[in-house]
Amino acid sequence: MRPRDLLIRAGRLYCALEGLDGPGAVAITNGRIAAAGTAIEGRAAEVLDFADGLLLPGLVDLHVHADRGGSRFGVDPDLHLLPRGTTTVLSQGDAGSANWERYRDNVVDASTVRVRAALNLARQGETTAGACFEDLDAAHVEACVAAVRAAGNAVWGIAVNTSVPACGGSDPREILRRGLEAAERTGKPLLFGSRRSPDWPLAEQLPLLRAGDVVTYCFSPDPDGLLAGSAVREEVWAARGRGVLFDVGHGMASFSFRVAEAAIAQGFLPDTISTDFQLRHVDQQPPHDLPRTLSKLIAVGMPESEAFARVTARPAAVLGMAGDIGCLSPGACADLAVLRWNPHALPLRDVLGEERAGGCWEPVAAFRAGIRVS
User: Fold this and answer.
1) What's the confidence (pLDDT) of residue 1?
2) CA–CA separation, 277 vs 288, rounded Å?
3) b/e 105-143 (16+ beta carbons within 10 angstroms → b)
4) pLDDT at 326 > cutoff 80
5) Is 126 helix (H, G, I), strand (E, B) or coil?
6) First to last CA, the chain
7) What torsion do the CA atoms of 239, 241, 242, 248 make, to the nearest 10 degrees?
8) Residue 277 CA to chain centroid, in angstroms?
9) pLDDT in tens, 28-79
10) How many Å separate Cα 92 from the centre of its chain?
11) What are the CB-based long-range contacts (under 8 Å, 24+) for 196-200?
12) What CA–CA distances, in Å, run from 334 to 35, 96, 229?
């Protein structure tokens, strides 16, 4: 048998798609996974052993701000996300139709991290200091549709945020109406940030969404969020039943232990776990990353294997890339993350400063298409 390029052994191998969860190894040839499991035979040009590590498919973050010098929230994904085990990201509205070509050239085509975009309905994306929809004319359906159609697979969907900080004085109902029109005309899903304000109840927003649309910030502490009192709202369950998806989108203000704990106790698990990583997270201590964010979900009762799936196979499927990323299947791209459990890690905190006991999964190594990048 011809030697593989790389063999990576780990004390624990996890893949939701292949049903792997135990000691094992991954063999890599030409940037692709040749085999993965408990009994991998044959020689390799290079062998790595992470005896105390957890080997996962490269992590997939469905809500980040990845940019270089454009978006006011943007960070260089290769500098700030890749070393933390994240190999694929979805940019949440950093670029719009007016600056899509710059974004494609400077970020999508120039990054080692695989970048897909939720194109902002606002033509300028997140390049201005104030609310991106303050000028309602920025929500330009024709321009958005034309850009999405020209972009091909690099644009996954359309980002629409109806929150007060995003809308300013503009009517959030009209912004969502335009976003849905653009989504219908392009056949794309929405990455949707809800109003989270009593002037437009969630019960009136969710019925407008379609199967495959993704509601982010789902564990926000805002009063008009996921919970009514301590119970998951009926309209939230109804939306899930229709195929609407729910994403964490932790960020600076959108993750509450109390909300997550109550929802998970009622069987409402997020479809995907994401960081909403942005410029203000750079150099934050402890580091804000996807391993720490998934550790917070585990700390409030989410089964570990479910949390792992929601940063690998689940978001890969949402992006339409199941079988190529987010898994250890033969033939899949050899994007990998190695994590290690640290029982003495700095405390896990939510955006309100509340803490939960327990350790944390932390990044050890990352591989992109079979090449070690951290």
Assistant:
1) 58
2) 7
3) ebbbeebebbbbbbbbbbbbbbbeeebbbebbebbbbeb
4) yes
5) coil
6) 29
7) 50
8) 9
9) 999 999 999 998 878 999 999 999 999 999 999 999 999 998 999 999 999 9
10) 9
11) 196/163, 196/220, 196/222, 196/224, 196/225, 197/163, 197/164, 197/222, 197/224, 198/223, 198/224, 200/162, 200/172, 200/173
12) 10, 31, 44
Cβ proximity of 55 and 14 under 8 Å: yes
Give residue 194's pLDDT.
97
Structural tokens at position 246: 């729910």
DSSP characters for 142-177? HHHHHHHHHHGGGEEEEEEE-SHHHHTTS-HHHHHH
What is the rounded distance in angstroms from the CA atom of residue 206 to the CA atom of residue 312? 26
Report whether 331 contacts 18 (CB < 8 A). no
Q: Tell me the domains of the chain and their CATH numbers.
A: 4-57+330-372 (2.30.40.10), 59-318 (3.20.20.140)
> Which structure tokens are listed for 60?
């997939």
pLDDT in tens, 140-193: 999 999 999 999 999 999 999 999 999 999 999 999 999 999 999 999 999 999
Q: What is the DSSP string of 273-301?
A: ----B-GGGTT-SS---HHHHHHHHHHTT
pLDDT in tens, 222-243: 999 999 999 999 999 999 999 9
Query: What is the percent of the chain with per-residue pLDDT over 70, rounded to a whole number?
Result: 100
